[in-house]
Design brief:
20% strand, single chain, 14 helices, D-Maltodextrin-Binding Protein, domain 2, five-stranded mixed beta sheet
């Protein structure tokens, strides 16, 4: 089985993924048993397109690569324009599935209804949105939810570390955050900012690797993104506990890492999935392997029965 946690550190996604199915002969990350059982199935041909969350992308990146070994005649393209950007394409009918790090919004659901697109929500895994600082930062170990709000809400002031604790350096805080099209931004905005404006000085990007690199390069930097991106870069970043709780698979699954634990989704276009053999086959492979891949890249898998329910919901689309 490929070590996806380490593979992510060097290949953790640019602006898009295009892992076509052109001939990987390596044993899949789901093991030879999965590959052997799949080899008995009919060969599927076609192309499948998805888009959406950069947080969900590490799961899909692994799944797409392993699927290429099972169905080499299917080309799967997965963009990472953020949850909101992905839903825009989904509403336009451009994609068969849309990855999301937050539930679909009412206005997005209404737009899909207006467009005549029926969809199904599939839960893939759980994430703990991780607040991180530069490894040279030796003063921040823990922040409260109120500290986070004080830091990140725009109030017209220049934010200094000493504003949170007078014993901390009188240095300006440098902020990195997901872009406004990101579901991670939406989630942080809801549970931390409480719909107030984010600090204007923040560097925003839908590409989590840009955030990682920015924080790595500045001792006064702070940022947040999905847990898998922290795990992939934990040797060069320091995670901050929130109200004394560190994000771990255990605290994320239990809900103790609150309020920054959250579910990760993919949304399927019912008609495309039902009518396109390649789209259906890929979605089935995704649900069958999401738990193992989520754990491999640093997220928290669902209970087995939750994946079984997802597969039952998928089969109902036929």
């Amino acid at each position: 089985m490929r070590n996806w946690k380490f593979a992510m550190a060097s290949t953790i996604l640019g602006s898009a993924l295009l892992l076509g199915a052109c001939g990987s002969t390596e044993e899949t990350a789901t093991g030879s048993e999965t590959a052997d059982s799949a080899s008995d199935e009919a060969v599927v041909e076609g192309s499948v397109t998805g888009d959406g969350s950069s947080t969900v992308a590490p799961i899909l990146e692994g799944i797409v690569e392993e699927y290429a070994a099972v169905q080499p005649e299917v080309q799967v393209t997965v963009g990472v324009s953020g949850t909101g950007g992905g839903f825009e394409k989904f509403i336009q009918g451009e994609t068969a599935f849309s990855n999301a790090s937050r539930p679909i919004k009412e206005e997005e659901a209404a737009a899909l209804e207006e467009a005549g697109i029926e969809y199904t929500e599939f839960l893939l895994a759980y994430d703990g949105l991780s607040v991180v600082v530069n490894q040279e930062n030796d003063w921040v170990e823990d922040l409260t939810v109120e500290d986070l709000k004080k830091l990140w809400v725009e109030d017209g002031s220049t934010k200094m570390w000493s504003d949170i604790n007078p014993e901390w350096p009188d240095e300006e805080v440098v902020f990195y955050a997901p872009g406004t099209a990101s579901g991670t931004y939406d989630y942080f905005n809801e549970v931390i900012l409480e719909e107030e404006d984010i600090v204007e000085s923040a560097t925003l990007s839908e590409d989590d690797n840009t955030l990682v690199q920015g924080i790595q390069g500045d001792p006064n930097a702070i940022g947040f993104f999905g847990y898998a991106y922290y795990i992939a870069n934990q040797d060069t970043l320091k995670v901050v506990t929130i109200d004394g709780v560190e994000p771990t698979p255990e605290t994320i699954e239990s809900g103790d890492y609150s309020p920054l634990s959250r579910p990760l989704f993919t949304y399927a276009n019912n008609a495309k999935i039902a009518e396109d053999e390649a789209a259906y086959d890929f979605m089935q492979f995704t649900l069958e392997n999401a738990g193992q891949m989520a754990e491999a890249v640093g997220y928290v898998p669902l209970a087995v029965e939750d994946y079984e329910q997802g597969l039952a919901d998928l089969e109902a689309l036929k």
